[in-house]
């Protein structure tokens, strides 16, 4: 596998062959992870990776942590509340301090759009991996979502993904559109108009206001968490009505194509975006997405830092 990237800030410059090669690489690690869970790779022995999370996270933060340790790296799990930033130190000085200590890579999640790009400019010699910035991008989520879909469905060429929910405030949706289109899939967006971007076509997707009409064309239903922390109140009447109209119920799933699967980046608001019977049912890929998150982040670290692109 030929590879010349040392960072992952977004997926904007990825071409279809990049997605195809990367997904194969990630899935090839699964037998090694399952059979040798202590340390299936050792390519980052001697490396130190710092996880800088300025937003709460369970899956992304811990998935990166597991992937770093599984590839042999030492891990610094940094938090703003326990650092000198609580004493007034700037982010810039914090980043410089960590890198002068010999940190070899930074994983960054921040509520401010573009923050991983800013940090990369501060320390151009240190690889930076975007774990989510504002509502703009979440590239490893996009990669793990296509990886989970390929593992279940095979090729995504000519498949259709219907992303239903809060697209306007979702960095996951933006990265999923790029990743699934990169794998040859068509993408339809659906949800309340108040939760849609002004121009869905600018994202490279179609807009279908009726979620059942969108589902009828879909091989994959991608549900999104309602991003209450990023939006003003009053964008939909009530949680109960939202679930009835846009939630992944058994009724909505029955509208989809035969064999359709359900995805959600989590955390799930059960009874809001997804009914428990669907989240825990045979069509759900939600647990597979968690495993693929570790595989994708292991593959990313290995090929960007450890010379795994050979």
Automatic annotation (TrEMBL):
<dbReference type="GO" id="GO:0006207">
    <property type="term" value="P:'de novo' pyrimidine nucleobase biosynthetic process"/>
</dbReference>
<feature type="binding site">
    <location>
        <position position="59"/>
    </location>
    <ligand>
        <name>carbamoyl phosphate</name>
    </ligand>
</feature>
<feature type="binding site">
    <location>
        <position position="266"/>
    </location>
    <ligand>
        <name>carbamoyl phosphate</name>
    </ligand>
</feature>
<dbReference type="Pfam" id="PF00185">
    <property type="entry name" value="OTCace"/>
</dbReference>
<dbReference type="InterPro" id="IPR002082">
    <property type="entry name" value="Asp_carbamoyltransf"/>
</dbReference>
<dbReference type="InterPro" id="IPR036901">
    <property type="entry name" value="Asp/Orn_carbamoylTrfase_sf"/>
</dbReference>
<dbReference type="InterPro" id="IPR006130">
    <property type="entry name" value="Asp/Orn_carbamoylTrfase"/>
</dbReference>
<feature type="binding site">
    <location>
        <position position="267"/>
    </location>
    <ligand>
        <name>carbamoyl phosphate</name>
    </ligand>
</feature>
<feature type="binding site">
    <location>
        <position position="225"/>
    </location>
    <ligand>
        <name>L-aspartate</name>
    </ligand>
</feature>
<keyword id="KW-0808">Transferase</keyword>
<comment type="function">
    <text>Catalyzes the condensation of carbamoyl phosphate and aspartate to form carbamoyl aspartate and inorganic phosphate, the committed step in the de novo pyrimidine nucleotide biosynthesis pathway.</text>
</comment>
<feature type="binding site">
    <location>
        <position position="138"/>
    </location>
    <ligand>
        <name>carbamoyl phosphate</name>
    </ligand>
</feature>
<feature type="domain" description="Aspartate/ornithine carbamoyltransferase carbamoyl-P binding">
    <location>
        <begin position="6"/>
        <end position="148"/>
    </location>
</feature>
<dbReference type="InterPro" id="IPR006131">
    <property type="entry name" value="Asp_carbamoyltransf_Asp/Orn-bd"/>
</dbReference>
<dbReference type="Pfam" id="PF02729">
    <property type="entry name" value="OTCace_N"/>
</dbReference>
<dbReference type="InterPro" id="IPR006132">
    <property type="entry name" value="Asp/Orn_carbamoyltranf_P-bd"/>
</dbReference>
<comment type="similarity">
    <text>Belongs to the aspartate/ornithine carbamoyltransferase superfamily. ATCase family.</text>
</comment>
<dbReference type="GO" id="GO:0005829">
    <property type="term" value="C:cytosol"/>
</dbReference>
<dbReference type="GO" id="GO:0004070">
    <property type="term" value="F:aspartate carbamoyltransferase activity"/>
</dbReference>
<feature type="binding site">
    <location>
        <position position="60"/>
    </location>
    <ligand>
        <name>carbamoyl phosphate</name>
    </ligand>
</feature>
<comment type="pathway">
    <text>Pyrimidine metabolism; UMP biosynthesis via de novo pathway; (S)-dihydroorotate from bicarbonate: step 2/3.</text>
</comment>
<comment type="subunit">
    <text>Heterododecamer (2C3:3R2) of six catalytic PyrB chains organized as two trimers (C3), and six regulatory PyrI chains organized as three dimers (R2).</text>
</comment>
<protein>
    <recommendedName>
        <fullName>Aspartate carbamoyltransferase</fullName>
        <ecNumber>2.1.3.2</ecNumber>
    </recommendedName>
</protein>
<feature type="binding site">
    <location>
        <position position="141"/>
    </location>
    <ligand>
        <name>carbamoyl phosphate</name>
    </ligand>
</feature>
<feature type="binding site">
    <location>
        <position position="171"/>
    </location>
    <ligand>
        <name>L-aspartate</name>
    </ligand>
</feature>
<keyword id="KW-0665">Pyrimidine biosynthesis</keyword>
<dbReference type="GO" id="GO:0006520">
    <property type="term" value="P:amino acid metabolic process"/>
</dbReference>
<feature type="domain" description="Aspartate/ornithine carbamoyltransferase Asp/Orn-binding">
    <location>
        <begin position="157"/>
        <end position="303"/>
    </location>
</feature>
<dbReference type="GO" id="GO:0016597">
    <property type="term" value="F:amino acid binding"/>
</dbReference>
<dbReference type="GO" id="GO:0044205">
    <property type="term" value="P:'de novo' UMP biosynthetic process"/>
</dbReference>
<feature type="binding site">
    <location>
        <position position="109"/>
    </location>
    <ligand>
        <name>carbamoyl phosphate</name>
    </ligand>
</feature>
<feature type="binding site">
    <location>
        <position position="87"/>
    </location>
    <ligand>
        <name>L-aspartate</name>
    </ligand>
</feature>
């Amino acid at each position: 596998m030929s590879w010349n990237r040392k960072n992952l800030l977004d997926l904007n410059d990825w071409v279809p062959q990049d997605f195809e090669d990367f997904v194969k690489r990630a899935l090839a690690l699964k037998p090694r992870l399952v059979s040798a869970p202590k340390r299936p790779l050792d390519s980052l022995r001697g490396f130190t990776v710092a996880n800088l999370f300025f937003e709460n996270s369970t899956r992304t933060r811990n998935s990166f942590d597991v992937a770093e340790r599984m590839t042999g790296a030492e891990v610094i799990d940094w938090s703003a509340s326990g650092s000198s930033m609580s004493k007034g130190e700037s982010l810039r000085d914090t980043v410089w301090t960590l890198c002068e200590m010999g940190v070899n890579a930074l994983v960054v999640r921040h509520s401010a759009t573009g923050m991983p790009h800013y940090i990369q400019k501060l320390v151009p010699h240190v690889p930076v991996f975007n774990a989510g910035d504002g509502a703009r991008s979440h590239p490893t989520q996009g990669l793990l979502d296509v990886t989970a879909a390929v593992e279940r469905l095979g090729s995504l060429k000519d498949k259709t993904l219907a992303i239903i929910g809060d697209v306007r405030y979702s960095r996951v949706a933006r990265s999923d559109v790029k990743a699934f289109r990169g794998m040859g899939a068509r993408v339809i967006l659906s949800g309340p108009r108040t939760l849609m971007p002004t121009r869905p076509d600018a994202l490279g997707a179609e807009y279908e206001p009726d979620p059942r009409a969108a589902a009828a064309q879909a091989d994959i239903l991608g549900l999104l968490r309602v991003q209450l922390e990023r939006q003003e109140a009053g964008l939909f009447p009530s949680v109960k009505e939202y679930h009835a109209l846009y939630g992944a119920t058994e009724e909505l799933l029955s509208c989809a194509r035969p064999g359709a699967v359900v995805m959600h980046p989590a955390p799930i608001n059960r009874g809001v975006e997804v009914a428990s019977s669907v989240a825990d049912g045979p069509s759900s890929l939600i647990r597979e997405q968690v495993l693929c998150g570790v595989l994708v982040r292991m593959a990313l670290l290995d090929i960007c830092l450890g010379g795994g692109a050979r």
